[in-house]
Amino acid sequence: MRRTKNRVDVDGVDTAGISGLRLFEGEDLSFQERMKWQKERQLEMIKEQLREKKLKEMQDKQEEDEWAEQTDMLTKMRGMLEEENHTKRSDKEREIQEENMRLALIKKQREQEDKNWNETMNATETYRD
To answer: Which SS3 state, helix, strand or coil, does residue 47 take?
Structure first.
């Protein structure tokens, strides 16, 4: 029978189990390596998660910036179109007003001409009588 060494507390692991048995040499020779590998793997996973989180934050910020830029452009375009529409409407209203004034003047001139013609005709008729 092979003699075993009593292990002293290995990285906080109790060498005496619940049943009172001791850990024997050769049972878990790769324990230290496995724990080291698990810690390294855990650190790698944490770093990867942090990289992914940072990338996601950058993408979200870029999306927000692009959305804000697009909204600003649309707002400016809308303002330009509204201003153009207002200018066209004002010009059209001014043209209509000028045309109405011109037509009113023509109407007044015709009425005056008709009045003068009627007066002339009346005056001529009175002289004939």
So the answer is: helix
